[in-house]
Amino acid sequence: MADTARDVADRMAEAALAWLDSLDAAQREVAVGPPPRAGGAAGTATDAHAHAHADADADAHADRTRWFYTPTDHGGLTFHQQRPAQHRSAMRLVASGLSDAGYVTVATVLGLENVLDHVEGFSVNWGRERTRDPGMYYLRVFGEPGGPGPWGWRFGGHHVSLNNLVVDGRVAATTPCFLGADPAASPLLGGSTLRPLGTAEDTARELVRSLPPEAAARAVLLPRPPNDVVAGNSTRVGDRVIRRGELWRPGTHIPDRAEQPSTGLEGADRRTLALTPTPKGVPGAELDAGQRALLRALLAGYLDRVPDGVSPLARYDDPAALDAVHLAWAGSTAPGEPHYYRLQGPRLLIEWTNVHRGANHAHAVWRDPETDFGGDALAAHHAAHHAAHHAAHHANGM
User: Fold this and answer.
1) Which is more confident, 348 or 309?
2) Which residues face 367 on adjacent strands?
3) Cα separation of the two ends of the chain
4) Of 214, 221, 240, nearest to 341 (Cα)?
5) Is the pLDDT of residue 41 over 50?
6) DSSP β-ladder status, 138-142 and 32-33
7) What is the DSSP pairing of strand 362-367 with strand 282-283?
8) Which residues contact 211 (CB under 8 A, 6 or more apart)?
9) How deeply is 230 buried, as exposed, middle or buried, from its count of CB atoms within 10 A (0-12, 13-18, 19+)?
10) What is the pLDDT of residues 254-266, one digit of tens each?
11) Is the CB of residue 165 less than 8 Å from the CB of residue 377?
């Protein structure tokens, strides 16, 4: 039986090595980060040198798990810092972690920077040479691709954040996985419309509008939507309020009102929409057959961003798994109006907003609250490695 997670990891490693081999020393200095490690304390250092090493280790771990979806410094080598052939190799690595449809969507989101620049009259200036910039996407590889230890890679820029981890030769994590679109809908010749994330909006709206009144009243938590996804760009999903300024890396452009909640919600409204361990909204268990089909189709729009066999969508072939997925909504359910929704269940958090620019600016993120960035796989790997090392050391000492 094919091991798709291993096959995908092999393709990732081949593409990552080809990209790294094309870089010069100065480029590699920016493009390569330290090997991934499990979270937590960096050790029990007992002297100044060890403390400094532990602090550096912790900082390196923090960089891999510090992610953004705004037009800020995501960490890594930008397209602008690469020759065309290197840029092409970078996109090959990006494609290795995505389904065909996922890759086309990501490539389209990158191109939307040119459309957004046009929408804004080519006039936005945040103090850099170009503000809306399809060249400001960053790639960084962590560790040694294809080597014996864990390794990973991150690709991101405005409205894209892809985070991938390989442990023991298999893809262990593909979240957080963020895509956005601004504009969410753009005109094409012949009367068509470009909507890279349109299905994720339309399917969710069809589902919530299909609910009977009593269920709809429980699904719609708040009459107004938040300004952004509730979990923001947190390293770990929780109830901590994300401030607007945290969505940008320090030292780069920070918007006005940086200390305000990124969601724009305070008090009772914030508490109503807060993420809680017990999901809010209506569970899949209460949906009829047609609504359950819509729910699964909605999940596919997020989980099928990555290749078959790596995607957890097959998990929802189990009726009990689908039963546990809760739908919650905020804002209007009418087309063209600002709105928010989320799907939450075991090892699942999906959030969507389309609020700004007249409800024509979408954010859509998929997370695994228990193991974003592969924390559980790393912990298991390091525990097994430590146990094997300890056993070998004990045997040698006998």
Assistant:
1) 348
2) 349
3) 42
4) 221
5) no
6) parallel
7) unpaired
8) 219, 282, 291
9) buried
10) 667 899 999 999 9
11) yes
Q: Return d(Cα 281, Cα 266) in angstroms, integer.
A: 20
Distances (CA, A) of 196 to 114, 184, 190, 280, 337: 15, 7, 17, 28, 18
Single-letter amino acid code for the residue at 136: M
Which H or E run contains 385?
helix 375-397
At 386, the pLDDT band (50, 70, 90 cuts) reads: low
Q: Provide the pLDDT for residue 50.
A: 42
Tokens 């103090």 map to which residue?
127
Q: What is the mean pLDDT of residues 354-377?
A: 96
Contacts 24+ apart (CB under 8 A), 203-209: 203/294, 203/297, 203/298, 203/301, 204/298, 204/327, 204/329, 204/341, 204/352, 205/333, 205/335, 205/339, 206/294, 207/291, 207/294, 207/295, 207/298, 207/327, 208/327, 208/329, 208/333, 208/341, 209/333
Judge if pTM exceeds 0.70: yes
Locate 74 and state its tokens.
Answer: 């995501």
Q: pLDDT per residue over 205-237, tens digit each?
A: 999 999 999 999 999 999 999 999 999 999 999
Tracing tokens 């709809």 back to the chain, one arrives at: 216
Other residues' Cβ atoms within 10 Å of the Cβ of residue 380? 15
12: left (phi over 0), alpha (psi -120 to 50) or beta: alpha
Amino acid identity for residue 164 in this structure: N
- Check pLDDT > 70 for residue 89: yes
In terms of phi and psi (left: phi > 0; alpha: psi -120 to 50; beta: otherwise), the region of 281 is left
CB 359 within 8 A of CB 167: no
- Of 382, 371, 380, the C-alpha closest to 42 is 382
Contact assessment for residue 40 and residue 235, using Cβ atoms and an 8 Å cutoff? no
- DSSP character at residue 39: S
State the Cα–Cα distance between residues 328 and 20, nearest whole angstrom: 43
Distance CA 208, CA 327 (A): 8
